[in-house]
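Late entry, evening session. Most of the bench is empty. Finally got around to the prediction I had been postponing all week. Sequence below, unchanged from the version circulated by S.P.
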Amino acid sequence: QVQLVESGGGLVQPGASLRLSCACSQFTFRAYWMYWVRQPPGKGLEWVSAIGSDGSTFYADSVKGRFTISRDNAKNTLYLQMNSLDNEEAGEYYCAKAFNYGSTPRGMDYWGKGTLVTVSS
């Protein structure tokens, strides 16, 4: 059973930094694109970032320059380094695994339960 477990969320002040982790198991982690998606309170899902199996990275315009996605294939772990946090970054953060058609990612088939990020002074 594929398992994705997020951690690292918490309460931070505006301008602070936080690093989220996603521990992955029961699939060949290194072979799949991975994603971070967030959901602000009372709002819909928002794609945040993606990282390819080759290490290529992509970001939503709203976080570009402040967030960094990375992966450690030896540890089967996905990371999201978040800097200069403000209230717009608050919400539940989920990691997700790509669904592949052949070797081409076509969507997201497994999600973690999420980790909550709260930004408050």
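Two things to note before I forget:
DSSP finds no helices and eleven strands in the chain.
The mean pLDDT is 96.
Will write this up properly tomorrow.
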